[in-house]
Every structure is written in structure tokens, then in C-alpha cells.
UniProtKB/TrEMBL annotation:
GO terms for molecular function: isomerase activity. Gene3D superfamilies: Diaminopimelate Epimerase, Chain A, domain 1. NCBIfam families: PhzF_family. Belongs to the PhzF family. Keywords: Isomerase. The active site is at 46. This is PhzF family phenazine biosynthesis protein. It comes from the Bacteria.
Length: 265
């Protein structure tokens, strides 16, 4: 295949390994089923595909199982590749504007700003959750039950303390996987500790990878919830997967700005 491949960890910090992504820079378009095959072979939570086209870059995201509508950590990884590797040979590309790069996606144009060495800010849409009832199969499969439930693309489950988020498990995978949420998943979250305003984890039914290490797009729902609850538009967050990941969130109108650091592996 005529392409370049980069391995990037997104949302890394001291004590946080972040979430791994493969970024594939295509020289020409390839079929969707080939992209899915590559993503499955890569075996990481998300593979991003960048294609140079007239007027900029097109960006698509695939898990090992399906194409996604939006992915935060693979977008941050793609921005790192764009600034670190593509810009020097493609400086006239209109995708670049000052310290920003724009990608054409299924969700429209997504802008990512380079804030400094390997530090990037995603400009994503707010996806505010509404109170909802959790499917019984998901509720029964969780080792610890939530106190509140909301629904946007993802279910957002609120717990009373961060220990519950650390300890909760999908104790019946077979039952959990009877629910198909499409591109969505299950966020579990609670008030934070120390420098963190809130904590979270993310699980996906029927997925090859049950728990996502760091889920940038989940913060489109997490950030507005915690901003309203805490009375603050600026928040620090950590995702408590085995890898862990650190994010800074800012709410401004109907947009959420998610900042994190990238590191090539």
C-alpha cells in the first residue's frame, strides 16, 4: 500500500501513557473495507486515515470493528503528524492556517491548534446528555451501579466518588454485549481528586477492545455536564484506564476545547 504510517500516543502526561493511535497518510484513496482491514490488523483502539485532497486534508477514523463519527485521541494524533511531518513538505496546503490545521470529516471541518511542542487543542462540538434510562443488560452487567444516567451519542453514568469509577467492572461481558450502541459507548464518571476536576472511563459493547484507554470524544458530553455541576468552564480531567490519560477541557458556547499532549512511539 502506498502510504506512510505513524504510531502516536495521545493525551500523555507524567504517569499517563495515553491512548495509542495509528495515523495512516494515504497517497491515494483506498476502499472502506481496506481501511477497516488495516485498522483491525493494527490492533489499536483507533486508526486515522489522512488523505491529501484539493483544499486540504480529509480525515477518517476506524476502530478494529467499524468507522467512527468522531474520535478525539486519533484526531490529536493526526494533528501531531500533520505538524511534525506533513507541513514541511506541504506548507502551501490551505489546511494549515497559522498554528492551526483543519480536517474535513463526517462531522464537518474540525480545527486543531498547536499550542506548543506536542501540545494540541481540539475544537469539538458539545454533545450534552439528557436524563435517560440505562438498558437493563448494561445495568445488570456492571459491578457497581450509577446514581445518574444521561444519553447523548454515549451513555454517561455518574458515580458518587472516583473510587467507584476506578473499581467498576463489566462483570458479565456476555450480557453487556447483547446491547448494540452503534458508534456509542458507556462513559462512567465521578468527581475528581487533587488537580483533576473529574475522572472517567469508557466501555464499548460488542467491541474488540472493551475499554478505551483515553476517549477524547467522550469529553464532548463529560465537559458540559461537569461545567454545569461545578460552575466552571475550565476543567482538568483524567481517564482512569490502565494507561491513563490527561485532558484539559474548556467550554465556550456550543464548543468544547480539549487539550492534550502527543508522543510518537
Amino acid at each position: 500500500m502506498d502510504c506512510l504510517l505513524y504510531n502516536v500516543n495521545a493525551f500523555v502526561a507524567e504517569g499517563c501513557k495515553g491512548s495509542p493511535a495509528c495515523v495512516v497518510v494515504l497517497r491515494k484513496e483506498i476502499p472502506d473495507d481496506r481501511m477497516l482491514q488495516i485498522a483491525s490488523e493494527n490492533g489499536v483502539p483507533e486508526t486515522a486515515f489522512i488523505l491529501r485532497q484539493d483544499g486540504g486534508y480529509r480525515l477518517r477514523w476506524f476502530t478494529p470493528d467499524m468507522e467512527m463519527d468522531l474520535c478525539g485521541h486519533a484526531t490529536l494524533a493526526s494533528a501531531h503528524v500533520a505538524f511534525a511531518h506533513l507541513r514541511k513538505n506541504d506548507a502551501e496546503n490551505p489546511a494549515f492556517c497559522g498554528n492551526s490545521v483543519c480536517f474535513e470529516t463526517r462531522e464537518g471541518v474540525i480545527e486543531v491548534r498547536c499550542e506548543g511542542e506536542r501540545l494540541y487543542t481540539l475544537n469539538f462540538p458539545v454533545r450534552k446528555g439528557k436524563p435517560a434510562e440505562l438498558p437493563k443488560a448494561i445495568y445488570d452487567s456492571l459491578s457497581i451501579k450509577p446514581s445518574e444516567v444521561y444519553l447523548s451519542r454515549d451513555y454517561l453514568l455518574i458515580y458518587d466518588d472516583c473510587k467507584a469509577v476506578e473499581q467498576v467492572e463489566v462483570c458479565d461481558r456476555r450480557l453487556f454485549d447483547t446491547v448494540n450502541l452503534g458508534e456509542g459507548g458507556v462513559i462512567v464518571s465521578a468527581p475528581g481528586y487533587g488537580k483533576y476536576d473529574f475522572v472517567s472511563r469508557f466501555f464499548t459493547p460488542q467491541a474488540t477492545i472493551l475499554e478505551d484507554p483515553v476517549t477524547g470524544s467522550a469529553h464532548c458530553t463529560l465537559a458540559p455536564y461537569w461545567a454545569e455541576r461545578l460552575g466552571s468552564s475550565m476543567m482538568n480531567a483524567v481517564q482512569l484506564s490502565a494507561n491513563r490519560g490527561e485532558l484539559r477541557c474548556r467550554i465556550e458556547g456550543d464548543r468544547v476545547y480539549i487539550t492534550g499532549r502527543a508522543e510518537e512511539s
